Amino acid sequence: MRDRDVVLPLVLLVAFGVGAAFFLVPQGELDQEARLTSLSEAQALNLLNAAKEPLSPPLAFRQAELTAAAGNGALADRLLAGLIARTGQTASIAAARADLAFRSGNLRQGADYLAAAHSLVPNDRQRQKLADIYRQLGDRAAERKTLSSVPVTELSASERMRLVDLMAADGATAEALEVAHSALSLAGQDAPALAERFAALALSTEQSDLLIQTTATWLIRPDGPAVTMSIAKVMTVRPRLAKTFAAAVVSQVPEARALLAKTFTEVRLYDAARLMLQPWVDFGSMTPEGWEAVVLYADRSGDTGPLKHLLQQMPVQEQPPKNGFLPLIRYDGEGALLPYQLWLTPAYLEGAPLVEAAWALTRQRPDEAFFALQRSMQTTHDQMLWHALALRLHGTEYFDRLQAQAGTAFDLKSLSQGGVFPAARDAFP
Q1: Are 83 and 94 contacting, i.e. CB atoms less than 8 angstroms apart?
Q2: Could you give the CA distance from residue 82 to residue 59 in angstroms, rounded to a whole number?
Q3: Which H, E and C letters describe the chain, residue by residue?
Q4: What phi-psi label fits residue 395: left (phi over 0), alpha (psi between -120 and 50 degrees) or beta?
Q5: CA 376 remoteness from chain centre
Q6: CB of 154 within 8 A of CB of 186?
Q7: 178: Cβ contacts below 8 Å, ≥ 6 apart
Q8: How many CB atoms lie within 10 A of CB 179?
Q9: Measuring CA to CA, which residue among 215, 220, 248, 247 is closest to residue 232?
Q10: What distance in Å separates the CA atoms of residue 6 and residue 18, rounded to the nearest whole number?
Q11: Closest by alpha carbon to 230, among 200, 187, 188?
Q12: Rounded distance between C-alpha atoms, residue 339 and residue 307, angstroms
């Protein structure tokens, strides 16, 4: 082993918070220690090895340190073992022996020494390293014991999730749920990942009330949407429970109805999402967030009933919701716009080029449809719907011009072989 490869640096022990100064050193020893520092490491080691009288504990520790630095880790460990016989076990000595064991590749022995040091002078860094070593060794019981040795509040976010996983893997689901619930209230960026674990554990232990209450609490927090999405993803394994869950949560947080509707739509729990929309269908009083939820639900699910009903009840003087007509065009064709032509004013169509293109096709104005589709290419738009509308111009000069302008990004000719509008509906689950 090369010189310096096996090192027992005193500074590492200082970083652990224990250092080498674990004894009260007489003035004479301080003078001798000062003399040693003026020598090279080899000279200092030779001087200590030549001593005829037993070295004081601080100097004996220094001798072991210099021996390790010289490349003789085995001898350094024996010197430390002899020091223990004189002084008893200390955190400094145990940590030093752990470092030697790790450097020699003996993880198990190193873990034993480090555990001894940690039991004498606990600190976060030692605990995290010890748990990591146990993980490498595959000793889940020891890893779990180490992580459980401190309150959840003192663990890092990754340690909390690991402890939950270990408990769950051991079948201790009740304990895992308790830790996950406590950890979730502390989490920052890791909250969504913890929320998934918590939700899965709550469902597996039939703790739906706890899941409902926790979700309701998170919905009013800034990071509530991300946590709610994680919980909703887990709910997909229990779709029959989703409607009951959604109703219970929204009863506690009515203002979260739109967020819940959009979240359940995103994870394809359409029955639960539809339940969230029903009060708007029954009583109206739409909000911008509510319109977003209704439009998203119609676009993803293909169920345009709630959207049609609300559009038909909308006063003429009100502005239609953004993208509100797109699901109707997607699933029912451009002719679906006819009942809503009073809202299709030039001012509205100016900001909705795909709707303008569909409306132009309804009125058999391919030129206007072409220019609207051309204009929509300059903005972020629904590409599948754009394709479907462009296919309605197939067989005209406008189709070829769109093909030339769109390039390979829009393979209109191959799309035209797949059927006529609204064949694009199959692309939207």
Answers
A1: no
A2: 13
A3: CCCCCCCCCHHHHHHCCCCCCCCCCCHHHHHHHHHHHCCCHHHHHHHHHCCCCCCCHHHHHHHHHHHHHCCCHHHHHHHHHHHHHHHCCCHHHHHHHHHHHHHCCCHHHHHHHHHHHHHHCCCHHHHHHHHHHHHHHCCHHHHHHHHCCCCHHHCCHHHHHHHHHHHHHCCCHHHHHHHHHHHHCCCCCCHHHHHHHHHHHHHHCCCHHHHHHHHHHHHCCCCHHHHHHHHHHHHCCCHHHHHHHHHHHHHHCHHHHHHHHHHHHHCCCHHHHHHHHHHHHHHCCCCHHHHHHHHHHHHHHCCCHHHHHHHHHCCCCCCCCCCCCHHHHHHHCHHHHHHHHHHCCHHHHHCCHHHHHHHHHHCCCHHHHHHHHHHHCCCCCCHHHHHHHHHCCCCCHHHHHHHHHHHHHCCHHHHHHHCCCCHHHHHCC
A4: left
A5: 35
A6: no
A7: none
A8: 26
A9: 215
A10: 21
A11: 200
A12: 13
What type of residue is 185? S
Paired tokens of 282: 């029954």
Task: Record the tokens describing residue 237, joined without a space.
Answer: 């394994």
Judged against a pLDDT cut of 60, whether residue 324 lies above it is answered with yes
Look at the block and give the residue holding tokens 């967030």.
289
Say what the pTM is. 0.76
Tell me if 103 sits within 8 A of 72, measured CB to CB.
Answer: no
User: Which tokens is 86 given?
Assistant: 């004189």
Task: Compute φ and ψ for 315, nearest 5 degrees.
Answer: -60, 145
With a pLDDT cut of 90, the percent of the chain lying above it is 54
Q: What local confidence, expressed as pLDDT, does residue 80 receive? A: 79
Residue whose token pair is 């000069």: 397
Residues found in the chain: 429
pLDDT band at 419 (very low <50, low <70, confident <90, very high): very low
- Here the tokens at position 226 are 């991300």
- What is the Cα–Cα distance from 113 to 315, expressed in whole angstroms? 77
Task: For tokens 């009073």, name the residue.
Answer: 342
